[in-house]
Amino acid sequence: MHLLKWLYPGLKFKRWLFLFAIGVLLTGMGLAVVFNYKYLDSFEELVFYVTYTWTGTYNYTVTALVGSIVILLGVVIMLLATRMIIRSLITVLVPDKSSRLVDMIYEHRRLDKGPNITVVGGGTGLSVLLRGMKEATRNVTAVVTVADDGGSSGRLREEFNVIPPGDLRNCLVALADTEPMMEKLFQYRFSGNSDLAGHSFGNLFITAMTEVTGDIEQALKESSRVLAVKGRVFPATTSKVRLNATMEDGTFVEGESQIPLVHKRIKRVHIFPHHVEAVPSALKAIYEAKVIVLGPGSLYTSVIPNLLVDDIAKAIRESNAVKIYICNVMTQPGETDDYTASMHVKALIEHGGNGIVDYVLVNNKPISQEMQEHYAQEGQYPVLVDENAIESLGVKCFKADIIDDSQMIHHDSQKLAHQVMEIYHTLQQDN
């Protein structure tokens, strides 16, 4: 049965097998002409003799059956020979995966046919979604915020004058189709008291690659090859920006990492410099997308900063793609305290303009009382889904189970990807 997998639809293998068969047939016919049909006549006489021996008379049905068996045998031999040729090559190139060659090819072809999906955001929420999306389509692009100024990313940003690599690293790892050890290596964080303490290897790798290539896009491209990334990752801008916030009481806070610490209601966030050029490849990905997903992730410090880069919000508004916002399940202390789902959507519209989002995906799986009490100790509460208020903003609401609450409450990669594809396919059928 494993051999028959080579005949599955979508592998683009049958056409070449058929061409191979034509070549064999032509070769056989040519040999027959060269040798004046001598060997072909001998084979035909043998078939007639065997038929007569079995039946006592010439029987065309038995002759046809023998011919069919010969044809089937020839096809099996061609399949086997072709498979062994390909496996010989693959064994040299990727020896560890040669045993599941046909599955790899089939999966690659299936994912290649997936829709163009562009995901805009940052933080851990974005990487969670990407882990699921890479199993639905190979044509996924992440447009990532570069406003992070804390931790390892913040230190590298100041020391080497580069855009913060942390969120970019997480996206690369999330989209990677590589060995677990390579993923562990990229996520490894140095400990101790040395200058490397707190840095992740992946951040250092991307920073070094940027220094070597002289360009962050090229650095990400080369890093993607190392990790065998299923998709593309682009920063929203290559400019060094700082995220600031104006609070409702008029307080002005500088720095992405400082905004949640003041624990005041945010009125608006800004980037400085106010006008920075978007990465052309990111804009191209937005315009070419069939689906644009905003989030999940911190509303004001991961999702919205992308919309403040010149032309990003404009490109999203003008795109004909299905625009989906994945709303957070729990409120975030110091950022979205007491926020409902409609307040999340309203903040997106205020910063990105009307038309920035068409649909909001919210969780409808009940959260246990025990979990709610646990999160309440951290000042986090379930986001209330006020569907009527959402639709009054001109945005449609999709409710589904999109979380994993087995230990902690967080978005589930597979459920998120399934629902995004479900929304897309449902709308395609309706149109």
Give the SSE map.
Layout: H1 14-34, H2 38-55, H3 60-93, H4 101-112, E1 117-121, H5 123-133, E2 140-144, H6 151-160, H7 166-174, H8 180-187, H9 201-213, H10 216-227, E3 232-235, E4 242-247, E5 252-254, E6 266-272, H11 280-288, E7 291-294, H12 299-307, H13 312-318, E8 322-326, H14 341-352, E9 359-363, H15 369-376, H16 387-392, E10 396-400, E11 403-404, E12 410-411, H17 413-430
Helix pairs in contact: 5-7, 5-17, 9-10, 11-13, 12-14
> Could you name the CATH class of the largest domain?
Alpha Beta
Structural class: alpha/beta
- Strand order of the biggest β-sheet: 3-2-1-7-8-9-10
Strand elements, count: 12
Distance N to C terminus:
39 Å
Computed Rg: 29 Å
Would you tell me which CATH topology of the largest domain applies? Rossmann fold
Number of domains: 2
Number of DSSP helical runs:
17
The chain-level mean pLDDT equals 86
What is the element string, with H for helices and E for strands?
HHHHEHEHHHHHEEEEHEHHEHEHHEEEH
Task: Report strand %.
Answer: 5-15%
Q: Going by CATH, what is the homologous superfamily of the largest domain?
A: CofD-like domains
Unreliable segments (pLDDT under 50, ≥5 consecutive)?
none
State the CATH architecture of the largest domain.
3-Layer(aba) Sandwich
The best one-word shape is elongated
Helical fraction equals: 40-55%
Main sheet makeup: 7 strands, parallel
Transmembrane segments: 16-37, 57-81
Main location: cytoplasm
Protein name: Putative gluconeogenesis factor
Keywords: Cytoplasm, Membrane, Transferase, Transmembrane, Transmembrane helix
